[in-house]
Amino acid sequence: MVCTRKTKTLVSTCVILSGMTNIICLLYVGWVTNYMANVYVRVQEPVPGTKLEEDKGETIRIIERLDRLESVINQHIQEAPQKSEEDAAEPFTDSSLFAHWGQDLSPENRRAALKQFQYYGYNAYLSDRLPIDRPLPDLRPVGCKNLTYPDDLPQVSIVFIFVNEAFSVIQRSIYSAINRTPANLLKEIILVDDNSNNEELKEKLAQYLDDFNKRKPGFIKVVRHNKQEGLIRSRVSGWRAATAPIVALFDAHIEFNVGWAEPVLLRIKEDRRRIISPSFDNIKYDNFEIEEYPLSAQGYDWQLWCRYLNPPKSWWKLENRTAPIRTPALIGCFIVDRLYFEEIGLLDEGMDVYGGENVELGVRVWQCGGSVEVMPCSRIAHIERAHKPYTEDLALHVRRNALRMAEVWMDEFKSHVYMAWNIPQEDSGIDIGDISSRKALRKKLQCKTFRWYLVTVYPEMRTYTDIIAYGVLQNSIKTELCLDQGPDTDNIPIVYICHGMTPQSVYYTSNQQLHVGNLNPTLDDDDNRCLVDVNSRPRLIECNYAKAKRMKLYWDFNQGGPIQNKKSKRCLELLENSDNEFGYQLVLQNCSGQRWTVTNYHKNVIITT
Ligand SMILES: *[C@@H]1O[C@H](CO)[C@@H](O)[C@H](O)[C@H]1NC(C)=O
Ligand SMILES: *[C@@H]1O[C@H](CO)[C@@H](O)[C@H](O)[C@H]1NC(C)=O
Ligand SMILES: *[C@@H]1O[C@H](CO)[C@@H](O)[C@H](O)[C@H]1NC(C)=O
Ligand SMILES: [Mn+2]
C-alpha cells in the first residue's frame, strides 16, 4: 500500500518508472528533486481563510507528503536500479536504508542489513533486534479514551496475509494483535502464506506455531498457497478460513495500537453493512520509528491508485475527532462482517496480484447499499515498504484491475480510467478477463449508479466530461519527441524523448484548451495546467487562472493537423536548435505546416453532464 496525499504526478510517474529503463529513471531524478523543492516553498505560505484546525491538519499533511514523496522516490529511483546484489562489495552506497539509520554499524553488519533490506523492502536486520512486544505511542485523538463500549461486542478473526515477510515482523503483528485486542473478542488468528520462498519462514514459523498451539490449540491457523496468488486472492483465502462473525483483513507488517478493536466492532454490530478501516500510522521502513499520520479518508485517483483525502467538511463540522469518517474507498486493510462480505461479493477474484480491489470494494459497498468508514479511535501502524515483494510490473496489474472495475461499476465515467491510463476506449488490446459474474452481481444486488456514488460519496473527485483527445503529442518532423511539461520548477513546456508517463500526458477539450501533465483527480489538488501563448512563448499556466486573466489559452487542433492559437494565430512548432538536448526547441511561430498527432482522438465529446 503506497498512498499519496494530493499530488499524484510524482507517485504514478515513479510507479511506472519501476518498469522503465534506468536511463529514464535517472533523467527524472533532477526533476523529482526540483519538484520537492518547489512544493516545499509553497508550504511556507499560509492559506488565508481556512479554519485553524483544517489549516493545521493541512500543514501536517503537506509535511508528511514530503516525507512520503521522499520514500517513494527512494523506492523507485534508488533501490530499483540497484538490483545486483553483488554490489554488496560496496555496502556504503547511498541506499536509503542508511540515510537515517545504521551509521555506526560495522561494514559486515551493514552488508548484512543491506542484503536483508533488498530482500524485504524494510529493515529486517533491525526488526530482528527489536522487542517483539514493543510498546507503541498512543496516537488516538483526544476523547477516544473516554468512550465506553458494551460487553457483548462480536468476536473477530484477524487474518494476516504475507509473502516473503521477515519472521520477526510477522511475530510483532501477531503479538500486537494478541496484546491489544481484548482476549474475549479475539477468536483466532489466520496466517495466509502466499507461497513465500524464504526458508527461514518455513521452519521457524512452523516451529513457532507448534509451540503456540500447544498452549492454545487451533488459535493460530495457517493457510498456504502452493502458488503465488497475489494479495487479493490471499485476503479471500484468509476470509474462507475465518470463523468469527467479524473478519479483520490485514497485512502481516503492522502493529495494532491500543483499543483498536472496540470502536470498529461496535460500528459493525450497529450496522453489519458497514466496512471499516482503521486509521493508519507509518512504521518507517529504515528505523522502525512510528510516524503519526493525520486523520484521513481514503480515496483514489482515476488510475485507481489509492490516496489519502482530507476528511469531508461534514466531519470537521461535528468537531468530534472520534466520530467515524465517511470514506469513498479503502486503502486495503479492513474489517467486515463475515457473512455480509460474502453477500456483497467478497473481492473481485478475477483481479490479479495487487491494486484496484480496494477501490472496487469501496465503490461496490456504497453503490449496493452499504457504507465505508475510517474509525479515528482505531489505529494501526503499518510498514510502508521501500519496495514490494511482488516484483513484477505492478502497474500492469493495477491497470488491468482498474479496467475491470471501470467496466463493471463506473457506467459512463469509465472513460476517465481509460484516459488516466492513456489507453483507447475501444479495442484497448488489454485482456481484462471475464467480468460477466461481476456484472451479474451488480444486477442481483440492484446497485445504484456511479453517478450517484460520485455525487453522494466522492464529491471531491473531479470529472472530465469534455475531453476529446488524450495521450502524448508527437510532432511530424521528429516523431520520437513528445510534448512534455518539463521540469516542475518552471512553467516552460519542452519536447522530450517520448516515454508516455504523466509529464507527457495531454488532454484536449471540446472548448479547445490543451491540458498538459497530470489530470488532477480531486478538488483538493492544484488546478491543471494549460498551454498558453505568453508573449509568443509557450507556457503552462493554471487553466482557471489563465481563463480568468483572458490569456491566450485556446487552440485549434485536429488529429494530424497544426496546433494553432486561436487569438495569436501562432503555431506550436519545433525549431532546430543544437543547444537543446534533443536538437529541437519548442516554439510558437508563424505556422509552417508542422503537424501533431495525439494518441487517442475522439471526434465526439465522450460524455455530457
Ligand atoms: C475524559 O475523562 C476524564 C476523566 O474521567 C475527564 O477528566 C475528561 O474531562 C474527559 N474528557 C472528555 C473529552 O470528555
Ligand atoms: C463523538 O463521536 C463518538 C463516536 O461516534 C460518539 O460516541 C460520541 O457520542 C460523540 N461525541 C459527541 C460529543 O457528540
Ligand atoms: C509572420 O507572419 C506575419 C503575418 O503574416 C508577418 O508579418 C511576419 O513577418 C511573419 N514573421 C516571420 C518571422 O516570418
Ligand atoms: Mn502493506
Automatic annotation (TrEMBL):
Enzyme Commission numbers on file: 2.4.1.-
Domain Ricin B lectin: 470-599
Any GO MF annotation of the entry: carbohydrate binding
Database matches in InterPro entries: GalNAc-T, Glyco_trans_2-like, Nucleotide-diphossugar_trans, Ricin_B-like_lectins, Ricin_B_lectin
Compartments reported by the entry: Golgi apparatus membrane
UniProt-listed PROSITE patterns: RICIN_B_LECTIN
GO BP terms, alphabetized: protein O-linked glycosylation
Transmembrane region(s): 9-31
Pfam family, one: Glycos_transf_2
Cofactor(s) required, per the database record: Mn(2+)
The entry's keywords: Disulfide bond, Glycoprotein, Glycosyltransferase, Golgi apparatus, Lectin, Manganese, Membrane, Metal-binding, Signal-anchor, Transferase, Transmembrane, Transmembrane helix
Top-tier EC class: transferase
Cellular compartments per GO CC: Golgi apparatus; Golgi membrane
Coiled coil ranges: none
Family from the record: Belongs to the glycosyltransferase 2 family. GalNAc-T subfamily.
Protein name in the entry: Polypeptide N-acetylgalactosaminyltransferase
Natural source organism: Xenopus laevis
Protein encoded by which gene: galnt18.S
